[in-house]
Amino acid sequence: MIDRAGLAEFLRRRREALQPEDVGLPRGQRRRTSGLRREEVAALCHMSTDYYSRLERERGPRPSEQMIAAMAQGLHLSRDERDHLFRLAGHQPPTRAADSDYVSPGMLRIFDRLTDDTPAEIVTELGETLRQTPLGVALVGDLSRFTGPSRSIGYRWFTDPAARALHPPEDHQFYSRMYVSGLRSVLTRRGPESKAARLAELLNAESAQFRVLWNEHEVGIVPHEVKRYLHPAVGLLELNCQILQDSAQSNSLLVYTAVPGSESYEKLQLLSAVGVASSV
């Protein structure tokens, strides 16, 4: 539903914040308006002055997605401002590109401050590991070494038995359902030409279990807060997984911790020492 008052206020504030020099217009000597005039914005947005003025006055028809996109471009909005404008007009914002390996500086600052005794990783929405702490590597191996479709943990889960060896057998069915559900959700967001769609096509061709689960059309299966790992050196670990999502990118920071004083906590400390010793 359109928020007419919010839309009008936002358009007015953005127009007043823009200066003629910002959009290549001459300032002139008689300008009294704070920011741009309505007719100037209307010209930049390729629409009539009357149409734009009615929006600022909380009147007129609901603007289409094409008109909102034109206003976003004409007003020189950032991606966040553009998305806000779409929502005020009652539309879903355009999807953002999701196959970039870019990690924001803010996310990296948090990641770099994690101590050596904390397993953590930064992953894409398809489960492609971009960064790991040393203890993260000691826990599950170097997951950033994979290339092609195998970069995705969901793809490896159905094609590489080593991926399943990291978890107890009784957890395998849940992980299978979770990875299929997650891939379907990403495909729905990103569309039939996306990387997610290509992964689904590959897995349907290569894995009978994936085909069965895919046809069940389950969605909304989220990871458990506690994950169980089978490590060849220290055995079973039960770790809490906290997830920090980057608001500007589709990446997430996953941080694994154990309850202090627990058996898993002691094993994680041991694994940290073994990892440090083996790297010397």
From TrEMBL:
Segments forming domain HTH cro/C1-type: 35-82
Keyword DNA-binding present in the record's keywords: the answer is yes
Recorded GO MF terms: DNA binding
> Which keywords accompany this UniProt record?
DNA-binding
* Residues in coiled coil: none
Q: Per its UniProt record, what SMART domains does this chain match? A: HTH_XRE
Carries keyword Nucleus?
no
- UniProt-listed Pfam families: HTH_31 (PF13560), MLTR_LBD (PF17765)
What is the protein's given name? DNA-binding protein
**Organism, per UniProt?**
Nocardia mangyaensis
From the broadest rank down, the organism's phylogenetic lineage runs: Bacteria, Bacillati, Actinomycetota, Actinomycetes, Mycobacteriales
